[in-house]
Predict the structure.
Amino acid sequence: MRHNKNIWLNKIAVAILFLLLQGIAIFLMTRYSVTQQAGIVHSLNVGHYYLWERQQMMGKYFNLNTVNRELSEENMRLRTELLTYQTHTQHTSPFDTIFSCINAEVVQKTTSSLQNYLIINRGSNHGVEADMGVIGNQGVVGIVRDVSPHFSRVISLLNTNLPISARIEPEGATGFLTWDGRSIYTGTISDMPQHSAIAVGDTAFTSGYSQIFPPHIPLGVVTSTTIAQGTFLEAKIRFFQNFNTLRYVYVIKNMHRQEIDDLILMP
């Protein structure tokens, strides 16, 4: 045992002596050799730049949430202006703003069931109410169903129980967009007149016939057409909105909805 202990102590002594001599050698090179000194300084500069670059990348990464929020708020402002412009072109009063937007972030979502939904981080404290429309950067997302002070539950367009009033341009034929529960990328617009001149490549938008969505919000592009039950034309469309990558949305508020609903309910 004593012999093994001496061997272990000798190894430690040799390692300490090696490190000491190595340190002296580096000191002499940096003190008296201009070439070696330049090489070491260069290596230190490379290491410093590497660490600085990684620090910058980490800073940018942690600032992404702030940048995304700022972009979302800017998009909300632009969305509101666009909705106002689109509404003005179809109404007699050019000074009347009908729709506004509330930006929100998706905190939970489903895409694998027949009745999919989303949870967003805006609720009654932010002005969100049930039956408000929700859109994304690429098109329609769904309709608000339940609201709490800070969050809202949204029925997704990927829900077999959610019909959306749609119009296909340039023909102008209207029908109802529904999801058949199969692919999250496609839906069907039905109940259109059989004589409608719908062609592959035509674009589907919201019709504007409901008080939930303004007109001309993108839905998708026509990929095929068929005659259903020998009476109505159906069009298969590919959604513009990608629900797999969906993160930021905009809740649409109709400023005159209550007034219009009151008129509809009058005897």
The two ends are 105 Å apart (CA to CA).
